[in-house]
Amino acid sequence: MRAERGQVLVMIALLLVILLGFAAFAVDIGRQVSERRHVQNAADAAALAACRSLIAGGSDAAATADARAVALINLESSPTGTSGRVAADGSPEYSDGHAGDPAYLTSGILISGTTVRVAIDAQVPTTLARVVGISQLGAGARARCRLQGGPAVPIVARRYDSAPGPGGNFTDFVATSGTSTTGSVDANNTVDGSTGLVGYLATGRSPATESDPGPTFSLYGPGAKASNAADFRGFIALDARNFQDTTSRVYYNGVSAGTNVQTLKDMEGDYILSGYPGPMFPPVTSPADPNDQVAVMSGNDTSMVVGNFSDSYAVGDRILLAVYNGTVMEIPDFAISPPSNFTVSSTGTLANGPNFVVSRNDSFNSTVTLHLHGDLEAAAAGHPEYDLIPDPPVTPPAAGDVNQPTWSTDVFIPAKNGTTVRTSNIQTNAVPAGIYSVWLEGHSGNPYFQTRRVPVPVKVGGASRDFGLQNSTLSGSTPTLGGSISLPIYASTTTASGTKWNSANQVSLSTEQFSTCSFAAASIAPGQISLSAASVTPSASGLGALSTMTINTSGLAPNCYRFVLRATGTNGDGQPVTHLQPITFTVATTSASGSYVDIIGFAVFQVTDVSANEISGRAVTGAFADPDAQALRRAQVARLMPW
User: Fold this and answer.
1) How many CB atoms are closer than 10 A to CB 112?
2) CB of 594 within 8 A of CB of 293?
């Protein structure tokens, strides 16, 4: 019995030692966890401090000093009395045998481009664990911060208006206000190797700066429409890219070819509030990287874009945006960026008319033939005299007519970044003063046989009193067959050029020329396109006088459709004014359309106004090829990233 009792005592003694060992580990591991949490907070704060220093324009050395100072402050009041260690000058230290490898950083601060890594070495002295030979436990921590380049929101800004310039209202919005209307477009988007700036070489323009910003313009909304697609107002689908050909699409963050437009809009709206998870756009290269091609979203979405934007940004804030050239492309496609207008005398010859640009994408390789057509439906609308160009055109023109101009180049394969076409020898013969519309049209040959048609105003005899439709929504969609679409149409007395209608006369509204978006034959029953008011008096109040257009899509197959809105009136000078505006809509189609824009650079913009349906701003940097360029850091966002 005594022997058995002795054995039990020995076992109890051994168990006590084991239990004490576990207790020691429990106590010391708890201290280790507490200290590691404390050190991790210090590392996170230090990494963010370094990123914010870089955003403010600090050098790498200044950012390192800021990170170390913040780390030391946050390491105070250690819960275990431990002193975390960061080298006196922040110099990085690595595990044995791994010098220079960021993955093995053990202490110090490492800045590489727009990425900051902070490692803090900390050792917690043990208490009870010493009885088993463990004198200290590691409690070091690491943090990584990155400056997020690329777009801050799913909006792209136009670089050019009325390209190629100069004259004809040409503007480079990322040049200083004083130089923004000089020079011409750099069709090749040439990158300056020493500065990283895009498209300033030998142009006579200077990149915008904080002290000398660019002109104020519309970043998003009715005033931001593309030169060749009035339904695109700057809203992009960040998750749908690569339009190199019809099957090349690349999708991100759960988006697929079947994702409907409304779901995409919801996602883009969330990105305005929470930030886009990436991947960001790559640096601009030549030839272009297909991932610089991003899908466009048609029309305005006031609640989604402006509403969410105003919740996150305010006037005076700076945002980093991708920049495009002002032209929307299709796959496979060529595009016409028309002149703002033809301005001619009632009788005479315009020897040198305005220029315009014809461009194409990678998959398009056929020739384009140009034509100018008159207002073909004017006679059916009751005003045959508004059709200024007979078919076929006649030179010299008869009384009341205009001839076909001469093109500087015709029957040509456009350059990928655009071919400038000059118009000349536009002759008029006794055309009454007024504002009319003609169609600038391009036809492509084998193998695509496509047509691109854009209206251009013709201002005759000094006519200037005008109205505009610029605040209207010109495209819509329904995800279901037979669905209904409503589009607000506004007639405003203040046009983009600042001229006034100055008249109580009404403007008549009607629709015509229904087809598919590729101009194939299509029809819609009478009455399926209706206007709440067939005539309105243009107004300077708000967005203008409203007439709501309703499209009943019953009987239409899934497709993209197009028709023309005719707006006709008489201005305060008794002159006729006619505007033709294409309207597009889609029925039961997916997000995998062929419409996209090419990203040609990145710039920082200061928000100058956020109104009910528009966001305005001005450039405070030039356009840079690399979204991570140091000059753009002012508007980049500091984000903690996984190591």
Assistant:
1) 9
2) no
